[in-house]
Amino acid sequence: MEPKKNPKSDVSRNSSIYFAVGLALMLAITYMSINYKTYDKSDIALESLNLDDELEEEVPITEQIVTPPPPPPPPPAAPEVIEVVEDEEEVEETVIESTETEMEAEIVEVEEIEVEEVEEDIEVPFSVIENVPVFPGCEKKKGNAAKKKCMSEKVAKFVNKKFNTELASDLGLPAGRKRIFVSFKIDKSGNIVGVGARGPHPGLEREAKRVISLLPKMKPGKQRGKAVIVPYSLPIVFQVQD
């Protein structure tokens, strides 16, 4: 009679599982052995840090100075003894008289008070004045613009005629264009006042003032029907030859 084998005791039944588990264990051991690192003990320096040395700090002992409180203020002075004196002097009462006039009093007539008007010296620029000053010979011009143009032409012609152009060479000025800025005012009577000049040489300034002072008397300019002062300015330009 043949003995029967227990199927659970068959070793070859789970051989594939055992093989896979063994292979996985071998791979894990191989991976760990490859990545395993070792260090030399001589390269590692271990130092101990003593924190107690740094925490021990000497704290200076300071003395607290107690400031004494200020002395109390002195007591108030005792009030002086006030003596009560009887008022025996008689005071004269001031009687205020009435300023009202009686019916029978005569009323003095007051003469008329004349108020003198003080005329102010008003200056109105030549460019905006209502009635421009009239240069002799420009009376027949109609309109403010025509009279302005006529005056400018007359003043320029007068300066060119009277100005001594040879003075520049006598003063030793270099050749070239010379410019003198001249300003003056036409007062409320038509006279030339306040002449000023600014140029490259004092001699030219004196000559410009002399010529402008020779301008004839004009009809004064008016603003709102009243004569006013009119400032005027012009440049004098001439050429100095070599």
Automatic annotation (TrEMBL):
Keyword Membrane: yes
Pfam families listed in its UniProt record: TonB_C
Domain of life: Bacteria
Transmembrane segments: 16-34
InterPro entries: TonB_C
Keywords per UniProt: Membrane, Transmembrane, Transmembrane helix
Keyword Aminoacyl-tRNA synthetase set for record: no
Stretches assigned to the TonB C-terminal domain: 180-239
Protein name: Energy transducer TonB
Species assigned in the record: Winogradskyella vincentii
